[in-house]
Amino acid sequence: MFPDEKDDDLAAPFAGSLDYAAITEELQMLVRSGRMRGCWGLPPEEAFALAGVGVDLDADDWARISWFGPLEIWRDPEHEVSDILYNGPPDEPFYVVQRGAMACTGVTAHPEWIAWTQRQLLLRGHKLQAYDYDWPAMAQGVADRLRFAITGPPVGREGRSLAIRLLPERWRTVDDLVQAEVITREASDLLLEALASGASLLVSGPTGSGKTTLTAALTQAVGRRLRLVFVEDGGELPRAPNSLHLEVPAEDGGFSRAVTFALRQKPSYIIVGEVRGGEAMAMLQAAATGHPGIGTIHAGGVQSALRNLERMAMIGLAAESGGGGQAAAQIVRGLITSDTVSLIVAQIGQTARGRRAVLAVEEVLRQGAQGHSGDVFPTNALFAHDPGQDRLVRVGNVNAAWGLGRL
After folding, report:
1. 102 and 233 housed in the same domain
2. pLDDT band for position 325 (50/70/90)?
3. Across the chain, what does the average pLDDT equal?
4. CA torsion angle 284 171 267 335 (round to 10)
């Protein structure tokens, strides 16, 4: 068993005489001072011996230390690095996304450091037992504000890879996003009013567009008054005052079962960090029975987001009923376009001038089970990005019952 994250500071008195916080600080100082610069080309054991720290630490000790080898070079907020990438070949360097631009660092590392870093991520992310040295060829999770996706043999044919997203120490609030012109005050107020009234929200956009940042800001705002139940694989989104975070079980259909289980936790809202499979159907069913949801989805526009949601819900319905066809398509479409779900899509992406911003806010209009799979979804545009003004402007009024005649 691993200690909970909250117990890390208490681990030392129960695990022995080691001061894990002091060891972590010493390791971090070695990186900051540049004394580890010549060590990344050596195997970890040799590097620790040369540095004079970490030699006698065992697997259980490392599970209590928030330190990740060569990743530490870029972890300090002052570097303004959002992503760290390593592709596998031993002679290739790390790449980082710094201030929004991809850059080659020129830093290479011994293959054993990559394996060591993968194991440390899995240990700290509670994905691996302390004395287990075998892990899946593909794994993902969150450890100490590092969202990771890693590969190894046989998936990583040229070596072990790392894809790391550095999560913020302080999540941006709605006010922060308004000040940064990611969203207008009028649009943010409308979204918060919609959530206060029980509408469901889908935040869509490409990779790295800011979906999680916008979702975190909104959940932090509504979480002051509502009970939120988060369902995530890795626990990326920040806590709200009255919230429960559920980890998705590592099994087939685990995400859908976790969403269904969340219904028993008296949620005001069910928050799904990323909708990517059959859990879409569970979310729609939950919303239709009075448990609205907030989720993110990869898509390049509002219509593609809705089509992706429809496709994923069809997968979930097929898994439940063992079939599909037009009847299933009408069930799914009927839920997406029902007044009980009252779905809103907020599309976030990059403007023509290269900055992140909400580009559209549209509500899905009531249609019921009419239409066929693949048809255009009926929507009402509430806000749209004006390229000339380079800002989000109001273009329509709410048709749903929660805002009809008021918004």
Report:
1. no
2. low
3. 89
4. -10
- Please give the tally of structural domains in the chain: 2
Pick the closest to residue 218 from 194, 235, 242 (CA basis).
194
Rounded CA-CA distance 37/28 in Å is 12
DSSP per-residue codes, 236-287: -SPP-TTEEEEEPPSSTTHHHHHHHHHGGG--SEEEES---STHHHHHHHHH
Q: Identify whether the C-beta of residue 122 lies closer than 8 Å to the C-beta of residue 139.
A: yes
The DSSP output letter for 350 is E
Same domain (yes/no): 153, 229: no
Identify residue 192 by its one-letter amino acid code. Answer: L
Looking at residue 38, what DSSP letter applies? G
259 vs 277: CA distance, rounded Å: 12
Dig out the tokens for 74 from the structure: 């870029």
Q: Model's pTM, two decimal places? A: 0.83
Residues 200-230: pLDDT tens digits?
999 999 988 999 999 999 999 999 999 999 9
Q: How far apart are CA 72 and CA 323, in angstroms?
A: 49
If asked whether residues 54 and 140 sit together in one domain, one would say: yes
Q: Give the phi and the psi of residue 380 in degrees, each rounded to 5.
A: -120, 115
Asked if residue 35 has pLDDT above 70, the reply is: yes
Closest CA relative to residue 61, chosen from 9, 115, 15, 1: 15
Question: 371 falls in which pLDDT band (50, 70, 90)?
Answer: low
Cβ atoms of 339 and 309 closer than 8 Å: no
pLDDT(5) > 70:
no
